[in-house]
Design goal:
Structural class: alpha/beta
Oligomer: single chain
Order of helices and strands: HEHEEHEHEHEHHHHHHHH
Helix content: 40-55%
Strand content: 5-15%
Number of helices: 13
Number of strands: 6
Shape: globular
Largest sheet: 4 strands, parallel
Length: about 325
């Protein structure tokens, strides 16, 4: 196949590939500062370019990417509150808009007849992966669609593998070893460690600094981490994650049962969204305050079976 990128495909290529490998990858990650030494697309590159490699290796189609993500929450403004930056450099949207768009992305690939969808986020914030999975489950429950879905963070693909690398405890930090070395492999021109020794071209209050993070949200442990930041390590991590994505798409395709599916209209999608928010929003982890996130204080999601049995639950949409 000449390309697996939906944007670059001719219609005949799209139909040929979807017939052979009816799996769609959807990647998410914003532009966000990751130290002076990384381009700001780290989270985006580590999801989108990883998905492209997986599709090239195992088949499937990579959907047009979304380089906007959750940040700048008034109750947990991570760049400013945690990193001490003077302004945000992130392509930010609200939690509601991010999940709302996600629903429309799911609905779209379902309407196109894909058997499976893999929603991969390179951007991490407390519990969002669980909120994404909650939305996927609700869509399938309400529509009866046979589409199989997986949603989560890049690092979730194989935590055991990452643990066996014997890296410092800070390895998974924002702009830390793992994020940086993956970009070294996926888009090497977007990492320049020499910039660490160069003078700032803005006031220090803009670039930020705190007890936990250095300039532009890099880890406080950066000097200790530098010896581990190699492209060879990045290649090992990327190759393992590509292998995991191959196993994942095979598993999703095996779970798929072919049966007629109903076309879900835009109006019905809005009704699904309203119903989902009404039932679940109090349980979303991505809307918690900094204190709640850092102390793991969340309302426990009881599951849809219990929620939909409540007298106050919305009536069936269809």
């Amino acid at each position: 196949m000449r390309t697996h990128n939906w944007l670059d495909m001719y219609p005949d290529e799209y139909f040929d590939e979807k017939k052979k490998n009816p799996v769609c990858y959807m990647a998410y990650g914003p532009a966000e500062p990751h130290g002076v030494y990384n381009a700001m697309g780290v989270d985006f590159y580590n999801s989108y370019l990883l998905a492209c490699r997986a599709a090239e290796a195992h088949g499937g189609i990579v959907a047009p990417p979304s380089a906007w993500h959750i940040q700048e929450q008034p109750y947990y403004d991570w760049e400013m509150d945690c990193c001490g930056m003077g302004l945000s450099l992130t392509t930010s949207v609200t939690e509601e808009l991010f999940l709302h768009n996600l629903l429309y992305h799911i609905r779209n690939i379902d309407a196109k007849g894909f058997h499976a969808g893999i929603l991969l986020s390179g951007h991490y914030l407390g519990g969002l992966n669980e909120d994404m999975r909650m939305l996927c489950e609700y869509y399938r429950r309400k529509t009866g669609s046979p589409i199989q879905l997986w949603a989560g963070y890049v690092n979730e693909l194989d935590y055991d593998f990452l643990g066996k690398l014997n890296l410092p405890g800070s390895a998974e930090d924002h702009a830390g070893i793992l994020e940086t070395v993956m970009v070294m492999e996926l888009k090497p021109e977007s990492v320049n460690l020499e910039k660490i020794r160069q003078p700032l071209n803005v006031e220090r209050r803009i670039a930020g600094n705190s007890n936990d993070y250095g300039l532009y949200c890099c880890p406080a442990t950066l000097e200790q981490d530098l010896p581990y930041m190699t492209r060879d390590l990045g290649r090992r991590v990327v190759n393992r994650f590509v292998e995991c994505l191959g196993d994942l798409q095979q598993s999703l395709r095996e779970q798929y049962t072919d049966r007629p599916r109903r076309y879900i209209t835009m109006t019905e999608t809005e009704e699904i969204w309203a119903s989902f928010c009404y039932l679940t929003k109090r349980y979303w982890k991505c809307v918690q305050s900094r204190y709640e996130a850092e102390h793991d204080i969340y309302l426990k999601f009881p599951g849809f079976d219990e929620l939909e049995g409540k007298a106050w639950a919305p009536a069936e949409i269809f």
